[in-house]
Amino acid sequence: MLHIRLLEMEAELIAREQIKRAESDAERPLSEKSLFYLQEIVNEVGLQLAQPCASDFRGWLTYTRKGTRGAGSSDLVLLRGKSFKEGGLFGKHRAGLDVVNGLDHALEYLRNIDVTPPAELDHLLINFGRGKDNQDHVFIWYGENVAPYRLIFEHGVDDLSIETLHSALGQGLHWILSKPRDMTLPQYLQSLKS
Length: 194
What we know:
Layout: H1 2-24, H2 32-45, E1 58-66, E2 74-85, E3 93-97, H3 102-110, E4 123-130, E5 136-143, E6 150-156, H4 162-178, H5 185-193
Antiparallel strand pairs: 1-2, 2-3, 2-4, 4-5, 5-6
């Protein structure tokens, strides 16, 4: 349990440091390699929030939130979605969040309103910033309910491979699917050790 608490404290410290660096470096755009990895994730998942989709879609989708780093930057959210019918009898289907009012989130996103992931959906937040070594890093955060984000992966962009990134994302998505709703992520990880 101490190990899990230490990880939580480290994630909080990293988040505070990243926010300070972002405020002092707000005009610095993402590197080309960071943009490449961001686009790679979007392409790999395939469907984005509010896009037209098949009537039977249920699966993963992505969308971007306004980032803390200025123009051109964004935080990528990866979570479960499903198809919603928009309009009347002949309306098209759109990808919404996998909650009762999922279409509302999609329509807000189309109107350029910043969509916060709902508390009932665990999700991953992927963003890029400077690490302690002052180099570009990718950060993957686990979001659940109203708890603070937990850092589950950090890696320097320059020596990051697609396989490493896919593996980290795969593990986070596996946790989302496997974790019982009545457990927090630390409780779930502790139960795996037992």
